[in-house]
Amino acid sequence: MYVIKTLNGISEIGLRRLPRGVYTVADEIAEPDALLVRSADLHRIDIPSSVKAIGRAGAGTNNIPVAEMSRRGVVVFNTPGANANAVKELVLAGMLLSARNLAEALAFTATLGERADPEAAMESDKKRFVGTELAGRTLGVVGLGAIGVKVANAARALGMRVFGLDPHMTVEGAWQLSSDVVKAGSLAELYAASDYVSFHVPLNDATRGLFNDAALGAARHGVVLLNFARDGVVDAGTLRRGLAEGRIARYVTDFPKVEFADDPRVIALPHLGASTLEAVENCAIMVVDQVRDYLEHGNVANAVNFPTTRMARAGQARVCVANRNVPNMIGQLSNVLGNAGINIAQMHNASRGDLAYNLVDVETAVPEQVARQLGAIEGILSVRIV
């Protein structure tokens, strides 16, 4: 029996994939095996020692103490790509809002009821909202993950020229990306070429303030910035100066700031990126499947702290070991099992930076005493027998 605690409303479509009789799911559980979360801030709560996995129904994990969980051997999952289409569509909407002055036009039509002659007012004032078409314009996409690739491909379909940059692009992403997307040699080249720049990167030390004063100096005069990634990717001071000087024509974002609330050049949405029924369901299904596969079989997919590790099962039991990535760990694991007379049927080891993860299938049951011996090895973070 596995016990799952939900800290936000996780879609029932996803939760139904946890078989009754095998799983208990509730929002008030003292010692859960796993947590399922969307936006709840886990930095503010004590996470029980019983927790073996945390599943985030979304891409960002800033609300989860990932470093602390890594030290405890707790695998943290997210759902990259599950909300990619929802965000892509919102980015396209943001470009259209900016290009066609739609926000101002909507505000104007809301006042027509106050006019003595609404038809005449509309015909005389509509020239104030003349915009530009996206076709023929250039979009720079910073970050070509699941969302960035979709945005780039959609922009090409609209007739835009697209520059892209991502030094960490995956092979899978490269296969999906339109061959017409131009690979930029640097951020400066991308900024200089682009009428619109859309950011699709996580927020970390390398990307905080990614669009800064140097970037503003390299960018085209009158650039439109689209930030549906994370607040902080665009430096607030740079944005303020760029808008004041007219070097940034528009800033379209999913992360409103009070200081820009009255600036008509800023189009701010209330964090709607993943707010579609489809995205919520996709995220729930994906995160539930990942957490279930980990609890039942020890497999790891789409974890933000441990390496992807999957292996078809063989033997009678499976030993799942999270550890620091140090020499001779495999030898020590094998030695403990061998001394206990336990034969290894197969094993798989993978590492990711300072962390590693092992799946070891054995031909006999593993006594609790042996599991404790494995856990006592220096560098071992967690041991599970499934």
Would you summarize the structure shown here?
32% of the residues lie in helices and 21% in strands. It is an alpha/beta fold.
Mean pLDDT comes to: 96
Q: Order of strands side by side in the largest beta sheet?
A: 8-7-6-9-10-11-12
- State the oligomer: single chain
Contiguous uncertain segments of 5+ residues: none
Molecular structure report:
The protein is α/β, with parallel strands linked by helices and about 375 residues long. It has three domains: about 1-85 and about 275-305, NAD(P)-binding Rossmann-like Domain (Rossmann fold, 3-Layer(aba) Sandwich); about 85-270, Rossmann fold (3-Layer(aba) Sandwich); about 305-385, Alpha-Beta Plaits (2-Layer Sandwich), CATH 3.30.70. It has 13 helices and 16 strands. The strands form three sheets. Strands 8-7-6-9-10-11-12 form a seven-stranded parallel β-sheet, with helices on both faces. The protein is elongated. The chain starts with a strand and ends with a strand.
Question: What are the main properties of this structure?
Answer:
Alpha-Beta Plaits, 13 helices, Rossmann fold, 7-stranded parallel sheet, 5-stranded parallel sheet, elongated, 32% helix, 3 domains, 21% strand, 386 residues, alpha/beta
List the helices and strands and how they pair.
Elements: E1 2-6, H1 12-15, E2 23-26, E3 34-37, E4 53-56, H2 66-71, E5 75-77, H3 84-99, H4 102-109, H5 118-125, E6 138-142, H6 146-157, E7 161-165, H7 171-176, E8 182-183, H8 187-193, E9 196-199, H9 213-218, E10 223-227, H10 236-244, E11 248-253, E12 266-268, H11 277-297, E13 317-324, H12 329-339, E14 344-352, E15 355-362, H13 368-375, E16 380-385
Parallel strand pairs: 1-2, 1-3, 3-4, 4-5, 6-7, 6-9, 7-8, 9-10, 10-11, 11-12
Antiparallel strand pairs: 13-15, 13-16, 14-15
Helix pairs in contact: 3-6
